[in-house]
Amino acid sequence: MEIDVRGFTGEPRQFLEAGELAFGDRAHDDDVPAFESLFEPDRAIGAYDGDRLVGTAGIFSFDLTIPGGVMPSAGVTLVGVHPTHRRRGILRRMMRAQLDHVHERGEATAILWASEGSIYQRFGYGLGTMLTRLSIERDRSALRRPLEPSGIVRFVDVADAKRVLPPVYDAVAPTRPGFFARTPAFWDADIFRDPEHWRRGAGPAFYVVHEADGQVDGYARYRIRESSDQDGPRRIVILTEKLATNPIADLELWQFLVGIDLVSSIDAWNVAPDDPILLNALEPRRLGMGLADAVWLRVVDVAAALTQRRYAADGRLVLDVTDEFCPWNAGRWALAVEGGMPIVEQATDAPDLACDITDIGAAYLGGIGFTALADAARVRELQPGAALRADVLFRTPRPPWCPKVF
Ligand SMILES: CC(C)(COP(=O)(O)OP(=O)(O)OC[C@H]1O[C@@H](n2cnc3c(N)ncnc32)[C@H](O)[C@@H]1OP(=O)(O)O)[C@@H](O)C(=O)NCCC(=O)NCCS
User: Fold this and answer.
1) CATH placement of domain 3-107
2) N or C: which end of the chain has fewer CB within 10 A?
3) Do domains 3-107 and 132-292 have the same CATH topology?
4) How far is the CA of 27 from the centre of ligand 1 (A)?
C-alpha cells in the first residue's frame, strides 16, 4: 500500500507510542502527560500505512541562542520509522515535508540530536555543536590548585530545585550559542521528572546547588550507579547536567563531585567543549576525555539565518552555496558586515568561498571554523585568505554547546 506522509492528526499518546516503537521501546504510561505538555500537534508529521501510523517526525518551537541574540528554531524530535517499513524512503519524505513546513513558517534554522551521525547530512544538516565526554578517575582527579571554598554546596529537593535551577540556566543561556530557552513545561517534563525507566540501572537523581553570598549561582544533577567487578563493588557518579554562572562556582561543583566518597569515577557524557575542568585538572589525561557530535544544525533559509546572527568583525564575503535538498538556498550570497550588523544579498561578483549548506550549518553557531572546513576539504577557498577572513567574522568567544538532548 502507498504510504501517506501528512500532518499528524490524532492523540499525542499515539504519536509517542509510534515514535517509541521506532526506537525499539514502548511508551510508558507515566511519560504520556509529560509528552502531552510539550507536544505541538500542528507541527507533527506522520507517515501512514492505511490508518496505521508507521513514521513520526515532531518539532519543538525553540528560541535558540545564536551569536549576538536569539532566533526561533525548529527543534526536530521523535523522528522514527517502524522496523517493518524502513529503507523505503519514508524518512526522506518526512524530512521533505518537515523542512518545507519550517521554511514556510519562516524559521531560518532547524536543529536536532541524531541517533546516528550518518543520517542527516544528506538532508543538509551540519555539525553545529560538539560535546565532551568525561570519565574521571576519582583518585587522579585533583585540581591543579585546591580551591578555598568561596561558597557552599548543598542538596536541594525537587521542590527547591524547581525554584532555584531555572534562574541559573536563564543566566547562562544567553552567554553561549546552542542553548535553547526552557519553558516551565520543559523543565517539568525533562529535568524534574525522574521515572525509573530513565535511570538505566542507576539510582534516583540528586540536585546540588552552589551558593555564594546567599545566591544560587550553579547546580549539578547526578545519579549514582553501582556495579561490581573483580575488585568488588564500584560506584560511579553519572553527571547529567552541571551549569554555573561563574567559573568559581563551576569548579567548586566539580570539587564536590570528585569528592563524593565510595565513588571510583565521575562520568559525564555531555559537558561543554571548554568546561573549566579541562584547564584546571592536575592531570588532564586522566579525565578520560572524548569528543563527539552533538546538535546538528540545518540552515533552512540562508539569507535569513546569516542576517539574524551577529559577527565579530566587519568585512564582506561572497559565498557560493550548494544545497541539494533545499535548492532555494543555492547560489551566490554576499554577506556584508558593518558595525557588526549584517546585510545579506544575492551576489553576482566573484565568490570567496564555495561551500555546501552543511558547512554553513557547522560554522553558524561558531563551532567549526572555515579554515578547519577548508582543511577538511569541505569548503573550497576561491580567493586566497578567504577562509581566515570568514573565521574572523564568524568567531564566537565560546564554543557553542547544548546541555540537553531533546
Ligand atoms: C533512521 C530512520 C528514521 C530511517 O528511516 P527510513 O525510512 O528507513 O529512511 P529512508 O528510507 O527514508 O532513507 C533515507 C536515506 O537515509 C539513509 N539512512 C536511513 N537510515 C539510516 C541510518 N540509520 N544510517 C545511515 N543512513 C541511513 C538511507 O540509506 C537513505 O539514503 P539515500 O536517500 O541516500 O538513499 C529509521 O531507520 C529509524 O526509525 N531508526 C530508529 C530510530 C532512529 O534512529 N531515528 C532517528 C532519530 S534522530
Assistant:
1) 3.40.630.30
2) N
3) yes
4) 21
Q: Which of 44, 125, 47 is nearest to 86 (CA)?
A: 47
Protein residue whose Cα sits closest to atom 9 of ligand 1? 91
Exposed e or buried b per residue across 256-268, where buried means at least 16 C-beta atoms within 10 angstroms of its C-beta: bbbeeeebbbbbb
Type of residue numbered 332: R
- Yes or no: is domain 302-394 CATH 3.10.50.40? no
How far does residue 109's CA lie from ligand 1's centre (Å)?
21
Pocket flag, ligand 1, residue 79 (CB < 6 Å): yes
- For residue 165, the SS3 value is helix
| Closest residue by Cα to residue 382 from 327, 332, 336 | 332
pTM value?
A: 0.97
Taken in order 356, 359, 361, 365, is the CA torsion positive or negative?
A: negative
Taking CA atoms only, the protein residue closest to ligand 1 atom 3 is 80
Q: Which of 15, 120, 169, 222 is catalytic?
A: 120
Q: Which of 186, 219, 311, 406 is catalytic?
A: 406
Domain ranges of the chain: 3-107, 132-292, 302-394
Q: Which residue's alpha carbon is at the smallest distance from atom 15 of ligand 1?
A: 92
Bridge partner list, 209: 154, 219
Out of 23, 59, 81, give the residue to mutate to test ligand 1, the one with the largest number of ligand atoms within 8 Å of its CB: 81
406 classed as catalytic: yes
CATH T-level fold of 132-292: Aminopeptidase (3.40.630)
Amino acid at 190: D
pLDDT one digit per residue (tens) for the chain, 406 residues: 799 999 999 999 999 999 999 999 999 999 999 999 999 999 999 999 999 999 999 999 999 999 999 999 999 999 999 999 999 999 999 999 999 999 999 999 999 999 999 999 999 999 999 999 999 999 999 999 988 889 999 999 999 999 999 999 999 999 999 999 999 999 999 999 999 999 989 999 999 999 999 999 999 999 999 988 888 888 999 999 999 999 999 999 999 999 999 999 999 999 999 999 999 999 999 999 999 999 999 999 999 999 999 999 999 999 999 999 999 999 999 999 999 899 999 999 999 999 999 999 999 999 999 999 999 999 999 999 999 999 999 999 999 999 999 9
Distance 80 CA to ligand 1 centre (A): 8
